[in-house]
Specification:
By secondary structure, the protein is α+β, with helices and mostly antiparallel strands. It folds into 2 domains: 63 residues, no CATH class; 119 residues, Alpha-Beta Plaits (2-Layer Sandwich). The protein contains 7 helices and 7 strands. Strand 3 and strand 4 form a beta hairpin. The longest helix has 28 residues. It is elongated. The relative contact order is 0.12. The structure holds iron/sulfur cluster (SF4) (2 copies). The site of one iron/sulfur cluster has 14 residues, from helix 4.
């Protein structure tokens, strides 16, 4: 029959249309809100969603999976007043970055002129960054991580400096809890092994 495909397609639209209202009613009966709530957005993103599954961006935003990545940021420990920047300005991230959009200036000791393992300046051109995550993969100090923040469009060039790149470790723990905990456990195990080795060496002496 001609038009069978059209009718089939329309029936899907029709079903989705009515399911939206049925879903709305079932949420209303349970005294819950299906729109503009985290629970509602999570439901609409799940396989259980029967009716409307789109979100009203930017008022509503999809819940991002942990491994979602956009542009990089630099991690610091300590607090806002006393930032312990993890980056040692080793330059590995700048070397592996495929489009070469990272620039680092290493700090030098003003008295001796010798290099100090921390960045004096750090820039990432976010308009060139291709979101590959290589910088975060290769950093030996867990100092650069991939952010979930994606709404960064602007009329100006998006070149982030050190001030704009730095975010606390607590933020990293919040957006990537599994990765953060895994890294912290590995760090603690490494420190414990180091302490045990030092204790054994002292005992042997
Ligand atoms: S972010 Fe990591 S890889 Fe890049 S310079 Fe700093 S310590 Fe090295
Ligand atoms: S995510 Fe990829 S392109 Fe972007 S700064 Fe890191 S290495 Fe470079």
């Amino acid at each position: 029959m001609y038009g069978k495909g059209i009718l089939k397609g329309l029936s899907v639209t029709w079903k989705r249309f009515w399911d939206t209202y049925l879903d709305d009613i079932s949420w209303w009966v349970r005294g819950k809100k299906r729109y503009y709530t985290t629970e509602g957005v999570a439901h609409r993103s799940s396989k259980d969603a029967r009716g409307i599954f789109t979100v009203q961006y930017p008022e509503e935003q999809l819940i991002q999976p942990e491994e979602f990545r956009f542009v990089p940021f630099l991690v610091f420990d300590g607090n806002e007043e006393n930032k312990e920047v993890r980056c040692t300005s080793c330059g590995i991230c700048a070397k592996v970055c495929p489009p070469q959009c990272i620039w680092i200036v290493r700090t030098n000791d003003p008295n001796t002129g010798k290099p100090v393992p921390q960045p004096a300046e750090f820039y990432v051109d976010m308009d060139i960054c291709m979101n590959c995550g290589f910088c975060a993969e290769y950093c030996p100090f867990d100092a650069i991580k991939m952010d979930h923040e994606f709404a960064i469009a602007s009329y100006d060039r998006n070149v982030y400096n050190l001030e704009k790149l730095l975010k606390p470790a607590s933020y990293y723990a919040e957006i990537r809890p599994l990765n953060y905990n895994k890294e912290e456990e590995a760090r603690k195990a490494k420190e414990a092994a180091k302490a045990a080795k030092a204790a054994a060496a002292t005992q042997a002496a």
